[in-house]
Design goal:
Elements (H helix, E strand, L loop, with lengths): L1 E2 L2 E5 L15 E6 L67 E4 L9 H12 L8 H8 L5 H5 L10 H9 L2 H7 L9 H10 L13 H20 L8 H4 L8 H4 L42 H5 L24 H12 L3 H5 L3 H4 L2 H11 L8 H6 L6 H5 L6 H13 L8 H16 L29 E4 L15 E4 L12 H11 E5 L2 E5 L3
Antiparallel strand pairs: 1-2, 2-3, 4-7, 5-6, 7-8
Helix pairs in contact: 4-6, 4-7, 6-14, 7-18, 17-18
GO biological process, one term: chitin catabolic process
Protein name: Glycoside hydrolase family 19 catalytic domain-containing protein
Keywords: Disulfide bond, Plant defense
Length: 522
């Protein structure tokens, strides 16, 4: 793939931005000769026009803080987007994408019952205990969209985790904490994003204080919002912010107009990554299928094209600035059971309540050997000897490692500026939400070596082809997949993925431009 003017090859699937970090997931293949480099974001954070949503329908790179901008002329106001209907997956894949087809199951091929039994057997072997996969599946459970859309501010029928968020963070407090937020980042959208993933601000039955955990989780999430989406504009005042219609709101009118807004309160300024507009196709954040030799992720998370037939960019969108096609695809699969819904319409991650749901999904999503951010905050992840040897300990610093550790953590010495920004914001949000920050909490990550294989968080949940010999099958093939500790499109976190893995590895063919370019049947 292409990023920042260089070609990169992933050693395994990762949400981290390509870099030359030692032992990292990326291999630098050298500079590009084409025009696929990511454009340099402009210094002035001129809000991009919010497109009108269409009726058909989201581990991400942290955007580099932009230089202090020069105020621009007041842009023409755009209309507040009308919420779109929940998309219905069609199952139809665009003809220009790689097409996965399957030959008929040969005689003796496993039955559905045998697939289910094999998946259950592997699930009991995936972690340090037999319940590891059950915990992962519980972390990823979702609420049906009909119930999410029914959420209202203060609604009596709101889900438990939404009521908890409302109890510890009311609408007035939310709006005061984010006075320059883009108009699409509403309190209601935040509540709907929370509702979609019940593991966020969840209930606990083992004595843990759910409200206290929720407060700490919110402070942690908001600190990362500041780094990911903040204006980072030291001289930004309410008077200046009000000249941007997409950021003007009633709270700004109540503030001292000429006093600079604290940096932690500048979060949620960016809805889309600075320098990009919806529909752009300049070759950024793409791992797209080009034929034989392409990554397996480019097959199962296929890039889409815009109306001009150009491959669209999966630049950062929403409060987590979700980026790369494989992240949009994985999020879409969690949301709709169909990767193509958001791969074809990534703008929904900016224009609807998915702008918060994408960040909350990332917070609850385990990426072995990393735990989900929620498990760091609520104590589910307890460091073992491997973690201790790698200086991994519970606290805000571990969540930075989960968010963008490949770029911001490790190496020793002073904390990098991005981490310092995150820590400063975390302390402020903790104060605002009455969250105690223990003196011994590991806030930084410079000394941390990361979550490694053998970590208490490491779970072999991913599936790849089992190359073993089975004399009972034609040609000795195994007709099986095995657990691996590197990332793959197939995971025991998703019931049914075991069968999908076996089917693809032994019966699958990939057609591209009408030709079979990958044949797993031979």
């Amino acid at each position: 793939m292409t990023y920042n003017g260089r070609n990169w090859e992933a050693n395994w699937w990762t949400t981290d931005t390509p870099s030359n970090v030692q032992y990292g997931p990326w291999k630098d293949l050298g500079s590009c000769t084409g025009s696929g480099a990511t454009p340099t974001p402009t210094a002035t954070p001129t809000p991009t026009a919010t497109p009108t949503p269409t009726a058909t329908p989201t581990p991400t790179a942290t955007p580099t803080p932009t230089a202090t901008p020069t105020p621009t002329a007041t842009p023409t106001p755009t209309a507040t987007p009308t919420p779109t209907a929940t998309p219905t997956p069609t199952g139809t894949v665009a003809a220009y994408k790689p097409q996965v087809t399957y030959i008929a199951a040969p005689s003796g091929y496993p039955t559905d019952a045998q697939f289910t039994a094999a998946e259950s057997a592997l699930a009991s072997q995936a972690g340090t205990d037999t319940q590891a996969i059950a915990r992962i599946r519980a972390a990823l459970r979702v609420l049906p969209d009909a119930q999410v859309e029914a959420v209202t501010v203060g609604g009596a029928s709101n889900p438990d985790n939404v009521k908890r968020v409302e109890r510890v963070l009311g609408q007035a407090k939310f709006e005061a904490l984010f006075p320059v937020r883009h108009i699409n980042y509403t309190y209601l959208n935040f509540l709907k994003g929370v509702a979609k993933f019940p593991a966020y601000c969840d209930n606990y039955t083992d004595g843990r204080d759910a409200d206290a955990i929720c407060r700490k989780l919110l402070a942690t999430s908001f600190a990362h919002f500041t780094q990911e989406t903040g204006a980072n504009w030291p001289a930004l005042t309410p008077a200046t912010a009000r000249t941007y219609p997409e950021h003007n709101n009633a709270v700004l009118a109540t503030m001292d107009q000429n006093t600079a807004i604290p940096s932690y309160k500048q979060a949620l300024w960016y809805l889309r990554e600075n320098g990009y507009n919806e529909g752009s196709a300049v070759g950024s954040y793409q791992d797209c299928f080009r034929g034989a030799g392409s990554s397996i992720f480019s097959i199962f998370y296929p890039c889409a094209q815009n109306a001009s037939g150009q491959t669209i960019d999966y630049f950062g969108r929403g409060s987590k600035q979700l980026s790369w096609n494989y992240n949009f695809g994985a999020f879409s699969k969690s949301m709709y059971g169909d990767v193509n819904v958001l791969l074809d319409n990534p703008g929904r991650v900016a224009d609807t309540w998915l702008n918060f749901a994408s960040a909350i999904w990332f917070a609850v999503y385990p990426q072995s050997p990393k735990p989900p951010m929620t498990w760091v905050v609520d104590g589910t992840w307890k460091p073992n000897a491997v973690d201790v040897a790698n200086n991994m300990s519970p606290g805000f610093g571990a969540t930075v490692h989960i968010i963008n550790g490949g770029i911001e953590c490790g190496g020793g010495g002073a904390e990098k500026p991005q981490v310092q920004n995150r820590i400063a914001a975390y302390k402020e949000f903790a104060r605002e939400l009455n969250v105690p920050v223990p003196a011994d909490e590991a806030l930084g990550c410079a000394a941390m070596k990361g979550f490694q294989p053998g970590s208490a968080a490491a779970t072999k949940a991913y599936l790849d082809k089992n190359w073993g010999y089975n004399g009972n099958n034609p040609g000795g093939v195994s007709w099986a997949c095995q657990l691996v500790d590197y990332q793959m499109p197939f995971s025991l976190a998703n019931p049914g993925d075991y069968k999908q893995c076996v089917d693809y590895m032994f019966r699958g063919q990939v057609k591209y431009n009408g030709q079979v370019v990958i044949d797993n049947t031979k």
